[in-house]
Structure formats: C-alpha cells, structure tokens
Specification:
With 238 residues, the protein is mainly α. It is 67% helix and 3% strand. It has nine helices and two strands, in the order ααααααββααα. It has helices at 2-9, 11-36, 43-53, 65-95, 110-113, 115-133, 158-166, 169-196, 208-231; strands spanning 146-148, 151-153. A hairpin with a 2-residue loop joins strand 1 and strand 2.
C-alpha cells in the first residue's frame, strides 16, 4: 500500500494511472456501443439486452449485483482518471510558474491543446446523458417499466426511452455534438497511453496516431449512428 502511494505521488505514477484507467474506460465505451447497436434489432432484442444486464451471473449472483460491481469499478476508474488529470495539470503549472512569451509556441496538436477542456465538456455530456436515458430526470416520456413475453419488469423501457428521446431534434443534435470531444479525447489519449505504458517501438510508432484516429472515429461514429437512425426514421417506436 505504501509503495502504491509512493508511485502515485510521482508524475510517472499519475500518468500510468491515467493511462490504465483510460484503457478501462475505453473498454466500457466499446462494450456499451456494441450493446446499444442492438437497437437496430428491434425493441424486443434491445430490451432483452437491457434486462439481461441486471441478471448477469444469475442464478449465482443476486439481481443487479454484477451490474453494481461493474458500475462501481467504472466510477472508480473515472474518478481516478479525473484526479490524475487535475494533479498532473497542477504539477505542470507549478513547474512553469511564468507564462510563455507571446512569440514562443509549443508544438501541440489541436487534440492535445483541447484535451483538458474537451474532457470537462465530455464529463458534462455524460452526466446529461445519464440524467436523460438512465435516470429519466431529463426525459419527458420516460417509461420505468418494460413488458417482455407478457411479464412486466420494474426496469426502464430502454428501447422506448432511447428512441423517443432522440426523436427530439435538439436533443439528438446535442448528443451528436458531444461525440466531437469524445473523438478528440480518445485520439489523444490512445496514442499517449501507448507511450506511457511503454508500447512504443521505431518499427510501429508511426502507426500509433493513425490507429488512434481510426479507433476514435470508429467509436464516436458508432455512437452517432443511433440518433441519426432515429432522426431519419430507420429506427422507430412502431
């Protein structure tokens, strides 16, 4: 425990923690996207997926136990990721107390320059998304029960809530705009995480940025498919 605390206090330790938690969050994004794409299979398939999440590990685990563990792990990774970002920013500011002169420019890419504020925007978007489609506090037509095979479950009607939510054009537009900071965050985070975790070699270093761009665009683009499908009528409530 003492060694872990000592590692955390170092800049390298904070960067490693940020990279590892970033990979964990990336895994969630991929899994969440794959699950959400089931909306194209229709309401029954999508709601079976949503209800199934609450029964993972059945009958060996209590209802929602596995989902709770995953959520707690995700929250812990997100908190540690954010704390590492703020502490590294503070360390950087302390090491550079005097502002750079006007004529001195750093070689930052647009993605890295917008990383911090883009991350804050992304965090706000995630909270709004949870309030909209998970908690229902920002959803005017949120259904808290779902019927599957004639059985009523005390869980949200995921298909109805998602489709009816994105049928509101300005809500869908905000969701689509949120994918921009997501893509930029993923792009910068992926290739920098490779460096932090020691995944670098002259033979393939030149592929890191293109690979990060492909993953970032692929994930953000995948999330864009759902509101676009609803707005164009490809996915409907009927």
């Amino acid at each position: 425990m003492t060694k872990a605390c000592w590692i955390w206090r170092t800049t390298i330790g904070k960067k490693a923690a940020m990279a590892v938690t970033g990979v964990m969050l990336l895994g969630f994004l991929v899994g969440h996207l794959l699950g959400n794409l089931k909306v194209f299979l229709g309401p029954e398939a999508f709601n079976h997926y949503a209800v199934g999440l609450r029964h993972l590990g059945d009958p060996f685990l209590p209802e929602r136990a596995a989902l709770l563990v995953m959520r707690l792990g995700l929250i812990a990774a997100a908190v540690l990721h954010v704390v590492a970002v703020f502490q590294l920013r503070a360390v950087s500011a302390a090491a550079r107390p005097v502002a750079y002169t006007k004529g001195h420019k750093l070689n930052f890419t647009p993605a890295s320059s917008a990383m911090f504020w883009g991350g804050l925007t992304l965090a706000a978007s995630i909270l709004a998304h949870l309030a909209h489609l998970t908690w229902g506090t920002l959803h005017q037509d949120f259904r808290h029960e779902v019927v599957l095979n004639g059985i009523t479950y005390p869980y949200a009607d995921a298909y109805h809530n998602l489709v009816s939510g994105f049928q509101v054009p300005w809500v869908a537009a905000l969701y689509l705009l949120a994918q921009i900071p997501l893509a930029m965050h993923l792009y910068h985070g992926l290739w920098s995480a490779c460096q932090t975790l020691g995944l670098n070699h002259p033979k393939y270093n030149h592929w890191r940025r293109p690979a990060a761009a492909v993953v970032a665009i692929g994930i953000a683009g995948g999330y864009c498919l759902i509101p676009l499908a609803v707005l164009t009528g490809l996915v409907t409530l009927n």
